[in-house]
Amino acid sequence: MPLPEPAPRRHLHTRAVTYEGFLRDDGLWDIEGAMTDVKTYGFERSDGTDMPPGRPIHAMRIRLTVDETMTIRAVATSMDHTPFGECQQGNDPMQQMVGARLGPGWRQAIEKALGGVRGCTHLRELLFNMATAAYQTVFPWREQERRLAGVAPSQNTEPPYHLGRCIAWDVNGAVAARYYPQFAGRPLVRKTTRDPGPSST
Length: 201
Description:
By secondary structure, the protein is of the alpha+beta class. The chain has two domains: 13-136, Sufe protein. Chain: A (Alpha-Beta Complex); 157-201, no CATH class. It has four helices and six strands; from the N terminus they run ββββββαααα. It has helices at residues 106-114, 121-128, 130-148, 174-179, and strands at residues 13-23, 29-39, 43-44, 50-51, 56-66, 72-81. The strands form two sheets. A four-stranded antiparallel beta sheet has the order 1-2-5-6, covered by helices on one side. It has a two-stranded antiparallel sheet with strand order 3-4. The chain is globular, with a radius of gyration of 21 Å.
């Protein structure tokens, strides 16, 4: 369903955010995030120079290389457009995320390493949802590989992380009954945190 028809209005700003996931030839995974901010009108920057309409104020990218355990093995960043030259100082601190794991505690790990003046606000914002993009990339593909190989789906003995954390994945709902009947309608008991963290399909 589309949104309701809006009131008369003028388009002023676009923030575009995209995430992509890649399986590398070496068996690792690249998760890339990109963000741009663009105005539809020109304005004078704080340094007195003119910013024409359509030129990005922010244009930033992050690449996380992760292994099968969702542990970050490498981080690469680029900041092609920033409002200040000093913003480039936000690149180097991103290396502190190497060794972190995309899963439970992900946001806390970002805040601990890059929070406040220790990092760039917009790179942090991009990082937050890269964990979800990673899980959407890795685990559905692994399940597809198992199906193509004729391997029966694994039987979960512990509820997956996303169960009970979304209206569609309510343990008392129809989706849980279809996909996880062993947990449907029962109190969730999680003994470990090894299960995927942020989200599922």
